[in-house]
Each structure stands twice: as structure tokens, then as C-alpha cells.
């Protein structure tokens, strides 16, 4: 599975963005997907995850209510809708897949990673 994230940018606090992650490979629809982020000088952290069918999602406490993960298996794409952006959301956002039906919040569970897309939020 190859992953490519895009959709980041420089925005103002309170704005919204939708990140996309395009996946190649016929097995995409069988795999869970996740989004992680890494702010400057910080470790990469979990943001959200979704099962292969989209029926179950999981969010980090810091993004609940503002971030929504979804997927379109027909388009081999997973999305991260980010609303009410805050300066502390500034980070490189990565999509990833564990290569199994569920990955959860642990980085080590994810086998495939995209290259990341930068989100910069100014106050």
C-alpha cells in the first residue's frame, strides 16, 4: 500500500481544512486507516483512526468534536476534516495504515505511512 497525503496549507485560527490521503493497492478497502501529526520539536502523535468499513472511529481527546475521519473505499481515499483550527494544530499530518482491519492509536501498529502534509495555523 502506498499512501499520499495532501490538502494542508497555511490558514487562520478558526478556519477549516480537509486533508485527503490517496492510497494505491487493491487491498485498501480491507485495511484500517489512521491520521497522525508531528509538531516541531515534538513526537508524532495519534489523531484519529477508522476501521476498514468506516463503522468505527477513534479520536485523540485533543481533537474530539473538531476533527472527523472518514473514508471512501470506492476512491481509495481517507479524509480528515478539521474544523475550528487552533495554532496548536500546527504540524505535519501523516496518514497511515496498519495493513490490518484495525490499528488503534499506537504508532508501532502502523506499517504503511504517507509522506505528510503541512498544516500551519496562525492566530
Q: What does this protein structure show overall?
A:
The protein is mainly beta and 123 residues long. Helices cover 0% and strands 48% of the residues. It is built from no helices and 11 strands. The chain has strands at residues 2-6, 9-12, 17-24, 33-38, 45-50, 57-59, 67-72, 77-82, 91-97, 112-113, 117-122. The strands form 2 sheets. Strands 2, 4, 5, 6, 9, 10 and 11 form a 7-stranded mixed β-sheet that branches. Strands 1-3-8-7 form a 4-stranded antiparallel β-sheet, with no helix packed on it. A hairpin with a 6-residue loop joins strand 5 (45-50) and strand 6. The radius of gyration is 13 Å and the shape is globular. The mean pLDDT is 95.
Shape type: globular
Strand content: over 45%
- Overall pLDDT metric: 95
Largest sheet: 7 strands, mixed
Radius of gyration: 13 Å
Oligomeric state, counting identical vs distinct chains: single chain
What's the layout of helices and strands?
Elements: E1 2-6, E2 9-12, E3 17-24, E4 33-38, E5 45-50, E6 57-59, E7 67-72, E8 77-82, E9 91-97, E10 112-113, E11 117-122
Parallel strand pairs: 2-11
Antiparallel strand pairs: 1-3, 3-8, 4-5, 4-9, 5-6, 7-8, 9-10, 9-11
Task: Quickly list its features.
123 residues, mainly beta, 7-stranded mixed β-sheet, 4-stranded antiparallel β-sheet, 0% helix, globular
Amino acid at each position: 500500500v502506498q499512501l499520499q497525503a495532501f490538502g494542508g496549507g497555511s490558514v487562520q485560527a478558526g478556519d477549516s481544512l480537509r486533508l485527503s490521503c490517496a492510497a494505491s493497492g487493491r487491498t485498501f478497502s480491507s485495511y484500517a486507516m489512521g491520521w497522525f501529526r508531528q509538531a516541531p520539536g515534538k513526537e508524532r502523535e495519534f489523531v484519529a483512526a477508522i476501521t476498514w468499513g468506516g463503522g468505527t472511529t477513534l479520536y485523540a481527546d485533543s481533537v474530539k468534536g473538531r476533527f472527523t475521519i472518514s473514508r471512501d473505499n470506492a476512491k481509495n481515499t481517507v479524509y480528515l476534516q478539521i474544523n475550528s483550527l487552533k495554532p496548536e494544530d500546527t504540524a505535519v499530518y501523516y496518514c497511515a495504515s496498519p495493513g490490518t482491519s484495525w490499528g488503534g492509536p499506537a504508532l508501532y501498529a502502523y506499517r504503511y505511512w504517507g509522506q505528510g502534509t503541512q498544516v500551519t495555523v496562525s492566530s
